[in-house]
Amino acid sequence: PFEVLVVGGGPAGNAAAIYTIRKGFSTGIAAERFGGQVADTMGIENFISVPYTEGPKLVAQMQQHVGEYDIDLMDRAVAQQLIPAKEAGGMHEVKLSNGASLKARSLILTTGARWRQLGVPGEDEYRNKGVAYCPHCDGPLYKGKRVAVIGGGNSGVEAAIDLANIVGHVTLIEFDSQLRADQVLQDKLRSFGNVDVIVSAQTTEVTGDGAKVTGLTYTDCTSGEGKSVELDGVFVQIGLVPNTEWLKDSGVELSQHGEIVIDDKAATNLPGIFAAGDVTTVPYKQIVIAMGEGSKAGLSAFDYLIRTEPA
Ligand code: FAD
């Protein structure tokens, strides 16, 4: 058993583990894939104090930092079920898909999130070559260029407003017959001269020249006609899905979007169980934020452990 078990090995989980081991608590990390979303990222230009790095390099550095300590890192460990302690100070249990079961007095849940994919041809092929999911991360790469944003909810319209300030031209594409974003955002969007909004449009393919994106095709759902737009980039904004399916019946409170509900000390509704990063209700999903939140969760676990007698 551990004093602290961190579930997830992305920026939030690694930060949490480094904080708790440095407090002298035995700490384990169980991660489906060490590095998390960072492992899928190319250029990173907003990791403050490091002007430019790349995902795989940052993952290697996180692994090196974790390796400086006696942290029990279990990679390819997929959590399937959480059984909370029956009494304060008791052991929480996490069951893994390989049949193993891990116990700890305190848990820090950092299983992250994943961008919902369009699922059309070209999306995978041109990921990081014009297909992007994060306007805060990749917007500046398209300065002066033509991009599309797919998705007319709040995140899509926010992304389109953000990008309209940076890029040459934005085409917002929505499947529904109207945008679903808040009216104030829609009004703001329509105040830009370099934005076109296309509704009732089902994206059918991201097209490219083999090396990078050159446009997309869609079906106009009103006329049934196939149409195309020339582009340098496509931002997919149809939802960020938290990795909380495994927590469904655990008693850990989830928001209506499936995110773990936490307070400003990263505590969940269950004593001794904390959460951090993209999997939580904390807004703005970014590496520096996940690391800050993970550190906060680590300190909260410390606070819990020194105040709670073992059951
Ligand atoms: P994640 O990084 O999602 O890590 C979650 C961890 O939990 C992983 O180890 C995963 O394998 C594990 N896990 C999931 N389910 C289970 C389970 N059931 N059992 C065990 N382990 C599990 N942010 C920036 O700040 N700058 C950027 O330039 C940037 N670019 C990005 C580019 C791309 C393509 C993507 C996808 C994201 C980008 N982001 C960027 C966002 C950033 O990567 C995330 O905000 C950050 O990684 C969140 O960290 P996290 O630790 O909360 O979650």
UniProtKB/TrEMBL annotation:
Disulfide bonds join C134-C137. GO terms for biological process: response to reactive oxygen species. The keyword Oxidoreductase applies. One of its GO terms (cellular component) is cytosol. One of its GO terms (molecular function) is NADH-dependent peroxiredoxin activity. Its cofactor is FAD. NAD(+) binds at residues 146-160. Residues 3-294 form the FAD/NAD(P)-binding domain. FAD binds at residues 3-18, 268-278. Binds 1 FAD per subunit. It comes from the Bacteria. Keywords: Disulfide bond, FAD, Flavoprotein, NAD, NADP, Oxidoreductase, Redox-active center. Belongs to the class-II pyridine nucleotide-disulfide oxidoreductase family. Homodimer. This is Thioredoxin reductase. The gene is ahpF. The chain holds residues 216 to 526 of 532 of the full protein.
